[in-house]
Structure formats: C-alpha cells, structure tokens
Amino acid sequence: MKPRLYAGRPLRALRQAAGLDQRAMAARLGLSVSYLSQLETDARPLTGAVAAALARHYPQALAAIEGEGPARRLAALTEALEDPALPPIAPDDAARLAEERPDVADRVIALHVARRAAEERLSLAEESFSAGAGARLPWEAVRDWFHEAGNYVDVLDRAAEELSAREGGGADWPAAFAAGHMRLATDADEDAPLARFDGRTLTLNATIPAETRRFLIAHRLAATAFAAQIAAIVAAAGLSTTEARRLLAIGLANYAAGALLMPYAPFRAAARDLRHDIDRLSRRFGVSFEQACHRLSTLQRPEAQGVPFYFCRVDMAGNITKRHSATRLQFARFGGACPLWHVHEAVAIPDRILVQHAETPDGVRYVSMAKGLVKPSGRFDRLARRYAVVLGCEATHASGFVYADTVDRAGAATPIGISCRLCPRPDCDQRAFPPSDRRIVVEPDVRRVVPYRLA
After folding, report:
1. What pTM was computed for the model?
2. Are 343 and 337 in contact (CB under 8 A)?
3. How many angstroms separate the CA atoms of 42 and 205, rounded?
4. Cα–Cα dist 287/59, whole Å
5. N or C: which terminal CB in the chain sees fewer CB atoms within 10 Å?
6. Coil, strand, or helix at residue 455?
7. Other C-beta atoms within 10 Å of 135: how many?
C-alpha cells in the first residue's frame, strides 16, 4: 500500500511564491478553503485528486513533493487526458490509473505524445538555440515567473482594488493620493529618465504622454503602498540572481499599478459591457491602448475570470518584447514569429486596427486584433518607438470580442504557426526555416517558392 504523503510546508511555500491567498489557491485547485488549510497544516494527506490538480497547474512543484518519476507520470497523464479529443475523466481516476497501472498510463501518454509530436520535439529543439541550453537570463526568469503565476497576482490585485475603491475618484486620483505621500516634480530636460525617485520626490520627464504619467505615478504609489507584499512575493519566488529579484519587484509594481488604474471588478464589468472594445476601455479608465490590452490579459481571478486572452507586443524587427497567454496558444521563446501573423503588417500601419481569423496546426481557431502604435520621442533627431500590440482569444469566446464581428468565423482561417522552426505545415510558401525535427529533400531540377520540401 502506498504510504500517505503529507505536504503542508511545500504547498504553503508554493502558494506564497505564486502570490495567492488561500481562497485564490483553493479556487485554482478546485478545493474548499478549509480543505486547503488542512492540507497546509498536515491535518490531511495529499490525495489523488489534489495531486492531479497540482500536476495540471504546478507540475514542477508536484515533482518536488512526490518525487520525479511518479509526479512526472501523473503530470504527463493529466495533460494527455485533458486533450479535447478525449472524453473527460475524473482527477481521482487519473491518479489511480497512474498509480495502479503505470504501464497503461505510459501507453496513454505515448499516444498523446505521438498526437502532438511535432510541437513537443520542436519545442525542445528550439530551446537548444538559447545560450547555455537551459540557463535563463534574469528577464526570462521573471517572464516565466509571471507565466507560471497565470499572469495574475491575487494579493496585489485585491490590495490595489481595495485602495482604489477607498481612495479613488476622478481621472487623476493616483496623483492626488500620491501627493500626500511624496512630492511630484517635472524635469524639462528631454534627455532625462522617464521617472526617478529619490525617496521623497518623484520626478517625471516633461515629454511623456498623460497616460504614461498616470501609470508612472501609480507605479511609484504601488511600490510604496505594497512594499511588504511585493517583498514577500519576491522572497518566495526562488529567483537565483539579484537582477532577477529586482526585475520581479519592478514587474510586480507595474502589475499593481495597472490594477490601481483599472481595478479588477469595475474593469472586468466594463470589458464585458463594451465587448472588450479597447479604445472605449482606454477612454473610460484614462489609460493607453497598450495598458488596457495588458490588463485584459490578467483577468484570471479564479472565481471571476475574464475572457482568456493572449497578449503580446512586437517591435519593428519582429521581436516579441512582451507576451502572455491564457489560451492554448503559446509563443516561441526564441526566433521569430509566424510571418503570416497580422502583427507584422500592423507594425507598419500605426493607429489602424487589423483583425485576423487564424488557425494553428492543432486545429484551434483564434480571433485577434493587432494595432500598430508609435511612442513619440519628443524631438526630430531621435527616432520614435514603433511596435504593435496583439490581443486575441479562441474563437469559442468570439461573441464577447467586438473585433470578431468583422470576420467570417465559419469560413476559412489563415493557417498560422508558432514559428517556422516549430511549425509542421508542409505547404507554407512563407516558410523561413524548415521544422527542426523534419528532414528536408532538395531537388535541383525542381523549382519551388521554398527550395526544398519536407520529407
């Protein structure tokens, strides 16, 4: 008989590292708050259902609790059984299958791997392009932390919502509130930093737009008001370098600033009411187009989730400089994005919204909007920053996404991939590189748009 496993301390550490209170963590795992409390105090052992939930949301943490082999099998089996092509199965049944019939579980896993072999093998191949083969740079570690947290930080989100409800009122309330805690000043030097804080005075560059000014004030206000919460999350994050810890603290303050300007419940309600019309949301909350897009991608509070969106920002060279996905679509960590993605056209056409109905190789369809944006430099001899933001959702949520009204969702969709190195499509004329796991055939006497075909 398998011995009972108690995991109170690692469960509590996992929750704290994710920045969640017990209510949010319980909702994410599908448990009651009292049951989670009993697990964290070792009053109850880890059950198959809880292990399956951990395998779904935190497979690495489960591996540390159970041991690498069984945890890896359960995590892989849970992922395989969540394939939409299969009928649903109860978490307890999945855990029992992994424990009592590991041979059968391994065959199910192998079938799932075969179904999505191209994605899995190519993802591993893509990782090899990273210097150090697995070593993460500080900003990569912070980006991955937010991804693993679901791009939602419950402690900060609720604290910001409470502060906004208590002190908010009027478009410029953060500045009025901050004025009681610090001095605000303006620097007329165009070459000055966007903002600097000396402990008493927040000095802002005079050339920045009003929305940026409000956000920077909210950032400093959040960094000050929520310093204890941010420090606790950073301490529990397990980041290995000072630079990563400092970047995470900045990122958390940015997150809280967005939550101050766009409090969760009012913003979610407005988004639903306006069908996620970003221009209207921007005007209502006094934020920029990009800030509203980013906030929409964070509406993942367990008991009041928004539409699951993916969001990213792409520069003129095609580099993805921000990214998050609450959908099945994941972005390539290295290399360029799919050339058929409308974001590349949007970068070249600022202030015009482009809409795309697309389908990924796994058969999932998405509707997304992309808009090119320009951040003026404030002077003729300095180039403006040009980039595009993209916000999209799976087509099943398109009825609540106003931009989807402009496309025929029953018709053909643009076939896009993650990146050329990850895309298994054999007939794409836009391909820049062959898939990393496929052999190519070069025929000197046959001329194609792409000078090879996939074996």
Report:
1. 0.72
2. yes
3. 53
4. 36
5. N
6. coil
7. 10
Using only the alpha carbons of the chain, give its radius of gyration. Answer: 24
Q: What angle do CA 61, 21, 74 make, to 5 degrees?
A: 25
**What is the residue-wise DSSP string for 20-45?**
--HHHHHHHHT--HHHHHHHHTTSSP
Copy the structure tokens of residue 4.
């009972």
Burial (Cβ within 10 Å: 0-12, 13-18, ≥19) of residue 217: buried
Nearest to 350 by CA among 386, 302, 305: 386
Q: Return phi, psi of residue 424, to 5°.
A: -85, 0
In the chain, helix, strand, coil percent, each to 5? 45, 15, 40
- Which helix (H) or strand (E) segment holds residue 54: the answer is helix 48-57
202 three-state secondary structure: strand
* Cβ proximity of 440 and 385 under 8 Å: no
Identify the residue whose tokens are 């299969």. Answer: 86
Contact 231, 156 (CB under 8 A): no
Q: Which amino acid is at 330?
A: Q
Tally of CA atoms within 13 A in the half-sphere of 120 that contains its CB: 12
**How does pLDDT run across 14-63, given as a tens digit for each residue?**
888 878 889 988 888 888 999 999 889 888 888 878 888 887 777 767 76
CA 307 – CA 395 distance, rounded (Å): 11
Joined tokens for residue 416: 């896009």
64/239 Cα distance (integer angstroms): 17
**Residue 447 per-residue DSSP state:** -
Burial grade of 242 (CB within 10 A; 0-12, 13-18, 19 or more) = exposed
- Indicate if the alpha-carbon torsion angle 268, 273, 275, 280 is positive or negative: negative
Task: Report mean pLDDT in 10-residue bins for the chain, 455 residues.
Answer: 70 84 88 90 84 77 64 74 72 77 77 63 48 64 86 94 87 83 89 91 92 94 95 92 94 96 96 97 95 96 91 89 84 72 89 93 92 85 89 94 93 88 84 82 87 84
Phi, psi of 341 (to 5 degrees): -75, 135
Question: How far is Cα 319 from Cα 301, in angstroms, rounded to an integer?
Answer: 29
HSE value, Cβ hemisphere, 13 Å, CA-based, for 335: 25
Nearest to 361 by CA among 407, 411, 427: 427
Here the tokens at position 90 are: 């109860």
- From the CB of residue 361, how many other CB atoms can be counted at a distance below 10 Å? 16
Residue 56: is it exposed, middle or buried by C-beta count within 10 angstroms (0-12/13-18/19+)?
A: buried
Q: Which helix (H) or strand (E) is 390 found in, with range?
A: strand 385-394
